[in-house]
Design goal:
This protein has 252 residues and is an alpha/beta fold. The chain folds into two domains: 59 residues, no CATH class; 176 residues, P-loop containing nucleotide triphosphate hydrolases (Rossmann fold, 3-Layer(aba) Sandwich), CATH 3.40.50. The protein is built from twelve helices and five strands. Strands 2-3-4-1-5 form a five-stranded parallel beta sheet. It starts with a helix and ends with a helix. One of its GO terms (biological process) is DNA replication. Keywords: ATP-binding, Nucleotide-binding.
Length: 252
């Protein structure tokens, strides 16, 4: 077995995959580079590879409904969204400071896209992130409560630096669900960040949560230390439908 083969085996055993991939280029390439320069460049590639792999894994485990980034958002179509404020949020300072973000608007205006985009950016910055539909979250909490395992379930949702709760308001929430949701929000308050998307004005949350008192308590904790975006534009879905319909008409 040659020394090079043994080196390859060592790199594989140490899981230095990027170095193993790029090493031949350096051995056959510029002979003017010193050993230190070669090792520096190879280790840079290894670190960059691991950074991207970690981000991909984080994005996968976050359970986003799709992978869309902020750069894919059409701010011209949705001028009610302040691009500057969204860009500032991409620094992830709001997560480090345990602040919240609320996206409010009717169906199809891009709330979930923005929430997902910020979530993907959080994953790229090595911030643990989880995305969950509100109704699904409530049902999980209720089942855990009925099976006497609520505390472990709450701790599971508390461990994420960023929790994204999508589509609050599309379905009514009963007394038990409201109480359990409040417990989760209360325990994350001023400790971990939450992004919320909702199709109803905050003033009408009492109609979604069966207990107006609990609804106000939830809002009090979500709105405090938060950035609120009220999106009043048109639906992206209707835009796509109109464009597709127009193309079909032209092709006839």
């Amino acid at each position: 077995m040659t020394a090079y083969t043994e080196l390859e085996n060592n790199l594989e055993a140490l899981k230095l995959n990027a170095i193993k991939e790029y090493l031949p280029n350096y051995l056959e390439g510029d002979k003017q580079l010193s050993v230190a320069e070669i090792l520096k460049q190879l280790t840079d590639k290894e670190l960059n590879y691991r950074k991207h792999r970690s981000a991909r894994m984080s994005i996968h485990t976050a359970h986003f409904p799709y992978q869309k980034e902020i750069k894919d958002f059409d701010f011209n179509f949705q001028p009610s969204v302040d691009k500057g404020k969204i860009t500032n949020l991409m620094s992830m300072e709001f997560v480090e400071n345990a602040r919240n973000v609320l996206f409010i608007g009717s169906s199809g205006v891009g709330k979930t896209h923005l929430a997902t985009g910020l979530g993907v950016e959080a994953c790229k910055n090595h911030l643990s992130t989880y995305f969950v539909n509100c109704h699904e979250l409530i049902e999980r909490l209720k089942l855990a409560y009925q099976e006497n395992r609520l505390e472990p379930m709450l701790k599971n949702y508390l461990r994420y630096k960023l929790l994204i709760i999508d589509e609050i308001g599309y379905l009514p929430i009963d007394d038990l669900g409201s109480n359990l949701f409040f417990q989760l929000i209360s325990r994350r308050y001023e400790k971990k960040s939450i992004i919320v998307t909702t199709n109803i004005p905050l003033s009408k949350w009492g109609q979604t949560f069966s207990n107006p008192t609990i609804a106000n308590a939830i809002l009090d904790r979500l709105v405090h230390h938060s950035e609120i975006f009220k999106i009043s534009g048109k639906s992206y879905r209707m835009k796509d439908y109109t464009e597709q319909h127009a193309k079909q008409h032209l092709n006839r």
